[in-house]
Design brief:
Layout (H helix, E strand, L loop, with lengths): L15 H12 L7 H11 L6 H4 L2 H23 L8 H43 L7 H34 L1 H4 L21 H53 L4 H28 L1 H24 L4 H45 L4 H14 L15 H23 L1
Helix pairs in contact: 1-6, 2-8, 4-5, 5-8, 5-9, 5-10, 6-8, 8-9, 8-11, 9-12, 10-11, 10-13, 11-12, 11-13
């Protein structure tokens, strides 16, 4: 069976995830690391992950500052263009969409700049759980589930790469099939954005905007899949706990000492999972809160702009694509977030099943009862005071959009 040596330096780290996924799919190997580990490598290749190791390099540290500066400058140019597009509701709404998206980027990059080391701790702990040796009757089941989750995450990441590329192409080609002179409506000093007055400056700005959207869309892709895959790894650890609970009690029901030892290890695993969920809620509070707000605004604005420009199919199609991508982005997080909640509930059922097979020991049954009581409080990824990331939240958002569209149509008819 062939193995793949993961490069620790150089640009080849950016596709290490897909090479490992190919080996898992065709060679039936076990993933060497979690998808989180590879997503972090991808961010390092892009120069947007300023942890302690990266900050030791003066050039890397300078590049992180440049990324923050160019994002803020780009946001300022969009803000200055708002008055120019105020007379056109479609252009004005499009500008608001880009401003909200750029502000979201700015928040993400500032967050990584200050909290990359905390994110490292979570990734390393989850990767350690993934790489731990397993044995016994549950080993084949656990390895199969880990491979399945890894392939799901890798396939979804590949799909996001394709969608991201299509979005970049559509955005950069707008001046070719619309009246826009630049991919983004922006205002610069001395009217540098006007191709008739300053053709060279206009060309430079066009190149800069093209670079900005290509680079930042790639970076935000890796950053967001890392956040979503954190949810997935929390979910698989809870599922592994359920598998262990469903199996160990029957195997060791006649040996009280082994039962108590194995139960102690599973209780520690449960506590570790709870600690990791709480840690993610703490460390990712700011970006998750910003994401919840941003997705609500982007979906609402794109739905409004679609209705406002419905007579122009080319313009309306841009907003429809944007709205669909935002919906899928929200569903991506809610899909994995819902897994965390459901598997945390399932822990209580598995612990109750272990209770029925437990030896007649007061200490063992007390520990199982404590575990059942704790597991009856579902875990969730929640940017308080907003609702948690799960299917209930997603369906509430999906149902709200048709109601908003009907209200907007009624207002326009009046």
């Amino acid at each position: 069976m062939t193995t793949y040596n993961i490069p620790q330096k150089g640009w080849r780290r950016i596709y290490a995830l897909f090479v490992d996924a190919w080996m898992v799919l065709h060679e039936k190997t076990h993933p060497q690391h979690t998808s989180l580990y590879y997503n972090r490598l991808q961010l390092m290749v892009m120069g947007i992950y300023p942890n302690k190791e990266q900050r030791r390099s003066p050039l890397r540290h300078l590049w992180h500052r440049i990324v923050l500066l160019q994002t803020n400058l780009f946001l300022v140019t969009l803000l200055f263009a708002l008055p120019e597009s105020a007379n056109n509701i479609v252009d004005f709404g499009q500008n608001i969409l880009w401003i909200v998206s750029c502000f979201y980027l700015s928040v993400k990059w500032h967050y990584l700049y200050f909290r990359a080391d905390d994110v490292d701790e979570i990734i390393n702990d989850l990767d350690e759980c993934h790489c731990q040796a397993v044995s016994g009757a549950t080993a084949p089941i656990i390895r199969r589930e880990q491979r399945r989750f890894f392939l799901i995450e890798s396939s979804l990441t590949l799909g996001w790469h394709v969608s991201n590329t299509l979005f970049i192409v559509l955005t950069l080609s707008q001046p070719l099939w619309t009246d826009q002179k630049l991919p983004f409506i922006a205002a610069y000093p001395f009217e540098w954005h006007d191709p008739e007055k300053h053709p060279i400056a206009h060309a430079v700005i066009y190149i800069w905007q093209s670079y900005f959207v290509a680079y930042n869309m790639a970076c935000i892709l890796y950053c967001d899949v890392l956040s979503a895959h954190l949810f997935g790894q929390l979910a698989i650890n809870l599922k592994i706990l359920c598998i262990e609970l469903d199996t160990f009690a029957r195997l060791h029901q006649g040996d009280e000492e082994k039962f108590r030892s194995q139960l102690g290890d599973l209780i520690k695993l449960h506590q570790r999972a709870i600690r990791n969920v709480n840690r993610v809620n703490e460390v990712f509070y700011a970006p998750l809160t910003m994401q919840m707000l941003t997705e609500f605004l982007l979906i609402s604005l794109s739905a409004f702009e679609t209705l406002a420009s419905r007579q122009d199919l080319q313009v309306a199609s841009r907003f429809i694509i944007f709205m669909i991508l935002t919906f899928f982005h929200c569903a991506y997080y809610c899909y994995f977030g819902d897994m965390v909640t459901e598997y945390s509930k399932q822990v209580a059922q598995s612990a109750y099943g272990a209770y029925e097979w437990s030896p007649n020991s007061r200490i063992i049954r007390r520990d199982l009862l404590f575990m059942i009581c704790r597991a009856q409080q579902p875990l969730s990824l929640t940017p308080s005071p907003f609702p948690p990331f799960n299917w209930i939240t997603f369906m509430s958002e999906a149902k709200q959009q048709p109601q908003q569209q009907q209200q907007q149509q009624q207002q326009q008819q009046q």
